[in-house]
Design brief:
The complex is a heterodimer of chains A (169) and B (190).
Chain A lengths: L2 H26 L3 H18 L9 H16 L20 E3 L6 H12 L2 H11 L4 H8 L3 H25 L1
Helix pairs in contact in A: 1-2, 1-3, 1-5, 2-3, 5-7, 6-7
Chain B lengths: L2 H9 L7 E3 L1 H43 L4 H27 L7 H41 L3 H41 L2
Classes of the chains: A mainly alpha (169), B mainly alpha (190).
Chain lengths: 169, 190
C-alpha cells in the first residue's frame, strides 16, 4: 500500500470516527497532557493497522479494538504525564478541548467509567455503544460467559450509583 | 436511572466533538513516533550484535598477532558466543511476533512476551556476558600483571555495569511486566 493511500484512509477514518476515539481517550486519560499522549499513541497504532484491515469487521469495530488495546497498554506505561515524570514542555499538543458535552449526565457517565478498572472500562464503553456479547468476546479474547458476568456487575454498579446521582440532581 | 436511559444519554455524543485536532501536528507526531518506535525495537539487539562482533574480531586479531595470546582467543570465543545467542534470540522473537491474535488478551500476551524478552536480555547480560567477560578480563590482568589503577578501573566499570543492568531490570521492566500480568488477571477473572 502506498504511503499516500494509507494517509488518505487514515484521514477518512479520523473524520468519520473521531468521536469513537475521543470516547476511549476520555475514559483512559484524565488530564490534557495524558489525553494528548494517548491520542497520539492511538493514532499511530490506527495508522499502522491500515494495511492489515481486511474489511472482515466494521471499521468502527476495528478502530475500537485498536484504541482500547492501545489504551490498556498505555495505562501500564511508567512515564504517563499524570506521574509527572515527563517534561510537559516537550509534548506535542494535537488535541484541544473544545466542547464539554451539553448534557451533564454524559460527564457523570465518564466519571463513573473512570471508577472501573482498565478492563471493565473497555467493556463499559463497548456496552454503552451497543456491542453484543459475542463481539465483545472476540474483541477481548475471553469467553462470552465471562463477558456476561462482568457486564452484570458493571450494569449493577452503574444503576446503583445512578441512584445517588438521581437524588443529587 | 435504567441502563437503557444511560445508553440514550451516551448516544447523544454522536454529534458532539469534544476536542479540536491540530491535524498537521498530529501527522508530524505520527511520523516521528513511527520512526522512533522502529528504532527502539532494534536498537538494543542490533547495537549489541555489532559491538560484540567488533570486540570479538579485535580480540581474535590480537590473538593471531600476539602468538602467546590464549586469553585473547578465549575472550574472542566468549564474545562470539554472545553474538550467536543474540542473533538466535532476535530470530525467535521475530518469529513469535505473529502468533498472537488481535484481541485484548492476544495484545496483552504479546506485550508480556516482549517485556519478558527484555528481561531475558537483561538477565543474560549479567550472567552470560558481564560475568564471563569480567572473569576473562580478571584472568588476563592476573596473567599480564596489571597495575593497581588498572585493577580499580576495570573492577569499578564492571561493578557499575552490573548495577546499572540490575537497576533497569528492577525499576523498569519487572514493574511493567507485573502491571501487564495484573491486567491479564483482571481480564480473565470472573
Amino acid at each position: 500500500m502506498k504511503e499516500s493511500e494509507q494517509r488518505q484512509i487514515f484521514n477518512d477514518w479520523l473524520d468519520g470516527y473521531r468521536t469513537l476515539l475521543f470516547k476511549v481517550i476520555r475514559a483512559y486519560a484524565f488530564n490534557t497532557d495524558d489525553q494528548n499522549d494517548l491520542f497520539q499513541d492511538v493514532c499511530l497504532q490506527v495508522y499502522r493497522s491500515i494495511p492489515n484491515f481486511k474489511a472482515e469487521s466494521a471499521v468502527s469495530t476495528w478502530l475500537y479494538r485498536i484504541a482500547l488495546n492501545t489504551a490498556i497498554k498505555w495505562s501500564t506505561k511508567e512515564k504517563k504525564h499524570a506521574d509527572g515524570h515527563q517534561e510537559i514542555g516537550t509534548m506535542t499538543q494535537v488535541l484541544e478541548i473544545r466542547d464539554e458535552p451539553k448534557d451533564e449526565r454524559v460527564a457523570w457517565l465518564y466519571s463513573e467509567i473512570k471508577k472501573f478498572n482498565e478492563i471493565d472500562r473497555s467493556l463499559t464503553l463497548l456496552l454503552l455503544d451497543g456491542y453484543s456479547y459475542k463481539e465483545m468476546s472476540l474483541m477481548m479474547g475471553i469467553s462470552e460467559s465471562n463477558i456476561g458476568v462482568k457486564i452484570h456487575r458493571i450494569k449493577k454498579q452503574l444503576i446503583e450509583n445512578s441512584k445517588q446521582y438521581d437524588y443529587g440532581v | 436511572m435504567e441502563f437503557e436511559e444511560m445508553q440514550k444519554i451516551w448516544n447523544e455524543q454522536k454529534g458532539e466533538t469534544m476536542y479540536a485536532i491540530n491535524e498537521s501536528a498530529l501527522h508530524q507526531s505520527i511520523t516521528r513516533k513511527k520512526n522512533a518506535a522502529s528504532r527502539r525495537i532494534n536498537k538494543v539487539e542490533i547495537g549489541l550484535i555489532i559491538i560484540n562482533s567488533l570486540v570479538s574480531i579485535i580480540l581474535l586479531v590480537d590473538a593471531i598477532v600476539d602468538k602467546e595470546g590464549f586469553w585473547d582467543y578465549a575472550g574472542a570465543f566468549i564474545v562470539m558466543l554472545t553474538v550467536v545467542f543474540l542473533v538466535a534470540f532476535r530470530y525467535r522473537r521475530k518469529k513469535e511476533a505473529n502468533k498472537y491474535d488481535r484481541s485484548m488478551l492476544g495484545e496483552l500476551d504479546h506485550a508480556i512476551a516482549n517485556t519478558h524478552s527484555i528481561l531475558q536480555i537483561a538477565t543474560t547480560m549479567v550472567y552470560w556476558y558481564l560475568l564471563p567477560v569480567g572473569f576473562y578480563s580478571l584472568g588476563k590482568m592476573i596473567y599480564s600483571g596489571a597495575s593497581l589503577e588498572r585493577w580499580l578501573l576495570i573492577v569499578g566499570l564492571y561493578t557499575l555495569a552490573f548495577f546499572l543492568v540490575q537497576w533497569e531490570r528492577k525499576k523498569m521492566h519487572i514493574p511493567r511486566k507485573e502491571r501487564l500480568l495484573s491486567l491479564k488477571r483482571k481480564l480473565m477473572e470472573e
